[in-house]
């Protein structure tokens, strides 16, 4: 008996030397023996459990000890489930304690039917494992963010050009397997650049985000919508015979949607969009995006605010256009852009009082090219201001020589908004004082009146200070208000030729022109009527009160020598003798 007791004491001493909880349960799951850590760690008691304690009683004590995270609030159910699991066979459980410690509990059956249960504190190992998993998740998230940034536009959240290329490859694979066609819709906002230039980049960015939102709501979930840069967007669609919304219909819906003003922060912006479409039923997949871009250019050249499809003839036209674009840049460097002049006549005396300098391109191979062919190209190349400047410089030099000894006519120049807002325009105007006559800048009604802001107003005031007269060109073609006209107070209005042409046959048109002339007179603004085609036009408009006439009835735009010969013959003779 003494030896048995000694063995038991030695066993307990050994068990108590274990850091983790240890217990032996008999075949009926009554406690045989346990170490001090068993009661202390699992039921928060300092004294050991007495032998014979039923498993269910122990589990109930453990559940109500507040030590086990999973048992809080469901103590009885947890105790019952845990006891049942241990009775059912071997366990390998990770147990989390409310004090932050983590144990791994395992059980083993002995040959005589006893069950040994031992728990090992693995808190440090678990902490290290969780840290590794957290780091791995952070790396994965960083990779996802980097991937998203690489394939998406940071402003609108849409896909970018790289994403577009991958989507085109994906749709190509689907097409090879399932048939159908891929259609690309290439969108360009018609008036975004003016908004960006006049309202600032912050407003421009907000407009782009609103445009992206509108497009998201119009396309299908299966479509690919990307922003390729600036104010350009592309939609890709895999089309099948049973497609409910054909691409051409989608294009019409988008164009119609942007006919309406876009609202941003309570302000309306009129943008408009042009769309070019290309499909693999005509274009090769490799050329799809290029061909949709060509179709977009066709839509813009036809007047914007419309959709156009690519066909084979468009490629030849684009090749010619590209060649002409390259030639225009070369021609600017070679100073092939020259001024032609159209005379302006005093309505009462019939004498020449002014010249409007108009750009013409004297091409060494193609001959004389008119602005309707090269100005749209110049706008796309953003060189209209260079053309304005070249015509301005050349005309000042030519007319400065031609009119040295006679009262000089006024010189009028068309000027783009880009040129108006450039740093050099005021300096150029100041240098123009070398010309003894009046210098006038003609600006489109929309630029002069619709898009007035502080920067434009300051620039116009600086030009006035430099001695430049300001004219509103094509008045009556836009939506200018009378209030804006009074605030800006230009020196002269030039009534749009579309209002002048019908005055000989329509009393209503004549009344409209008279109203404009009366309004200008009330504001002390002179009036020029352009588009005078016949003597009847001149007679009626003289009675209506116009100050100046301009049109083919008095002469077409021509070189200065020809204009001098027609209207200033003495000066023409002097120029001929001098040469």
From TrEMBL:
A Pfam family hit: PAS_7
Cross-referenced Gene3D superfamilies, in alphabetical order?
3.30.70.270, EAL domain (3.20.20.450)
Q: Which residues form the GGDEF domain?
A: 180-312
Q: InterPro entries this protein is in?
A: Biofilm_reg_signaling, EAL_dom, EAL_sf, GGDEF_dom, Nucleotide_cyclase, Rev_trsase/Diguanyl_cyclase
Per UniProt, residues of the EAL domain are: 321-571
Lineage, top-rank taxon, reads Bacteria
Q: Which PANTHER family match?
A: BIOFILM ARCHITECTURE MAINTENANCE PROTEIN MBAA (PTHR44757:SF2), DIGUANYLATE CYCLASE DGCP (PTHR44757)
Q: What is this protein called?
A: Phytochrome-like protein cph2
Q: Which organism is it from?
A: Boseongicola aestuarii
The UniProt gene name for this protein comes to cph2_2
């Amino acid at each position: 008996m003494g030896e048995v007791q000694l063995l038991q004491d030695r066993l307990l001493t050994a068990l108590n030397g274990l850091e983790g909880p240890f217990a032996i349960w008999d075949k009926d799951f009554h406690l045989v023996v346990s170490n001090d850590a068993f009661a202390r760690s699992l039921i928060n008691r300092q004294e050991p459990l007495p032998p014979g304690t039923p498993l269910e009683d122990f589990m109930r004590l453990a559940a109500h000890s507040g030590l086990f995270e999973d048992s809080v609030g469901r103590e009885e159910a947890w105790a019952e489930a845990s006891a049942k699991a241990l009775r059912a066979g071997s366990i390998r459980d990770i147990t989390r304690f409310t004090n932050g410690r983590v144990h791994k509990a395992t059980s083993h059956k002995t040959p005589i039917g006893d069950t040994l249960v031992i728990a090992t504190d693995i808190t440090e190992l678990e902490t290290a494992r969780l840290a590794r998993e957290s780091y791995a998740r952070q790396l994965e998230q960083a990779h996802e963010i980097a991937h998203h940034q690489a394939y998406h536009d940071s402003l609108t959240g849409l896909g970018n050009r790289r994403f577009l290329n991958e989507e085109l490859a994906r749709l190509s694979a689907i097409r090879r397997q399932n048939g159908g066609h891929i259609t690309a819709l290439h969108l360009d906002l018609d008036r975004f650049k003016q908004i960006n230039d006049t309202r600032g980049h912050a407003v421009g960015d907000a407009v782009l985000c609103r445009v992206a939102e509108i497009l998201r709501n119009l396309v299908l979930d299966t479509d690919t919508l990307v922003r390729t840069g600036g104010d350009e967007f592309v939609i890709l669609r895999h089309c099948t015979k049973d497609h409910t919304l054909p691409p051409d219909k989608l294009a019409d819906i988008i164009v119609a949607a942007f006919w309406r003003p876009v609202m941003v922060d309570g302000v309306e912006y009129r943008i408009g969009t042009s769309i070019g479409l290309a499909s693999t039923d005509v274009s090769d997949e490799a050329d799809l995006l290029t061909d949709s871009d060509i179709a977009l250019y066709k839509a813009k050249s036809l007047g914007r605010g419309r959709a156009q499809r690519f066909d084979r003839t468009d490629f030849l036209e684009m090749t010619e256009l590209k060649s002409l674009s390259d030639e225009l840049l070369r021609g600017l460097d070679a100073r092939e852009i020259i001024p032609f002049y159209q005379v302006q006549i005093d309505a009462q005396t019939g004498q020449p009082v002014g010249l409007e300098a108009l750009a013409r391109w004297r091409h060494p191979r193609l001959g004389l090219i008119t602005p309707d062919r090269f100005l749209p190209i110049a706008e796309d190349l953003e060189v209209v201001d260079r053309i304005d400047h070249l015509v301005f410089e050349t005309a000042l030099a030519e007319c400065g020589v031609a009119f040295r000894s006679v009262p000089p006519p006024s010189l009028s120049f068309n000027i783009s908004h880009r040129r108006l807002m450039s740093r050099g325009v005021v300096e150029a105007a100041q240098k123009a004082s070398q010309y003894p006559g009046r210098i006038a800048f003609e600006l489109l009604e929309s630029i002069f009146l619709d898009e007035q802001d502080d920067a434009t107003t300051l620039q116009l005031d600086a030009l006035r200070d430099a001695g430049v007269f300001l004219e509103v060109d094509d008045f009556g073609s836009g939506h200018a208000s009378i209030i804006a006209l009074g605030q800006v107070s230009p020196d002269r209005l030039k009534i749009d030729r579309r209002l002048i042409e019908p005055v000989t046959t329509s009393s209503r048109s004549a009344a409209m022109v008279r109203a404009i002339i009366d309004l200008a007179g009330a504001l002390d603004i002179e009036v020029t009527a352009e588009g005078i085609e016949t003597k009847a036009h001149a007679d009626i408009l003289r009675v209506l009160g116009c100050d100046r006439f301009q049109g083919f009835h008095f002469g077409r735009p021509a070189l200065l020598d020809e204009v001098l010969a027609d209207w200033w013959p003495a000066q023409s003779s002097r120029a001929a003798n001098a040469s």
